[in-house]
Amino acid sequence: MEDAVVVRDLVVDRGRRRVLQSISCTVPRGTVTGLLGPSGSGKTTLMRAVVGVQTVTSGTVTVLGRPAGAAELRRRVGYLTQAPSVYADLTVRENARYFAVLHGRGHAEADRAVADVGLADAAGQLVGTLSGGQRSRASLACALVGDPELVILDEPTVGQDPVLRADLWARFHEMAAAGTTLLVSSHVMDEAARCDRLLLVREGRLIADDTPDAVRAATGVDDLEQAFLRLIRANEAGREPAGRERA
Length: 247
Ligand SMILES: Nc1ncnc2c1ncn2[C@@H]1O[C@H](COP(=O)(O)OP(=O)(O)OP(=O)(O)O)[C@@H](O)[C@H]1O
Fold this sequence. Notes:
Elements: E1 5-14, E2 17-27, E3 32-36, H1 43-51, E4 58-63, E5 66-67, E6 77-80, H2 92-102, H3 107-116, H4 132-144, E7 150-154, H5 162-177, E8 181-186, E9 197-202, E10 205-210, H6 212-219, H7 224-236
Helix pairs in contact: 2-3, 2-4, 3-4, 6-7
This protein binds adenosine-5'-triphosphate.
């Protein structure tokens, strides 16, 4: 099956800086692919390019077989930005129902999306009165309510407690098992182990595109944070990055 996302030789300049330096990678359908890297490494910029809202300098981004940003992709791609994009003066339920209508879905789907992010008890609460972590989950519910084929989630678990984080990751894997493709960014390396595949970026360059197990095998260490350190050092030493083969 074709990949959900194909990025080829992507270069992006923001301001006067080159923030993505010729990135090529793929996101296979029906997987949870993690986009990992330190703050400022270019994760959000890459996600914006996949959503089609980022001006690119050169290269191509193909999403579900179409150029990124194509009008017909709007309903097929869900995007959770880092800043919650929900209406503060509506309740959680009203927000979810509003976004559900935009995607041709009903109340039942909206209520399910709210429950899926652990907000059933707060469904009647105004978003403006929620905690930061709750607000970001309300935003997540709105990104998922249309049941998009490709879901791009920019740091969806920041500020969530460990139980909720585990629940959210379980939900992501359920969605992937049902055929949805998820690209999920995080700068927390312990989340890398929860992904089917990993894209590791640093300073605008891709230094790994592989499964967690393949990254471990290529570097000879079990701990993914240590594995990434080795990849970074190997990369800085100018050697060929390890672990580029598909498992
Ligand atoms: N609007 C902008 N104009 C100029 N430079 C920008 C702009 N937005 C981001 N950048 C720069 O682009 C680089 C990549 O930023 P990006 O937001 O993609 O990183 P990130 O990996 O998502 O970081 P974080 O984990 O902190 O969200 C950073 O050096 C950042 O300062």
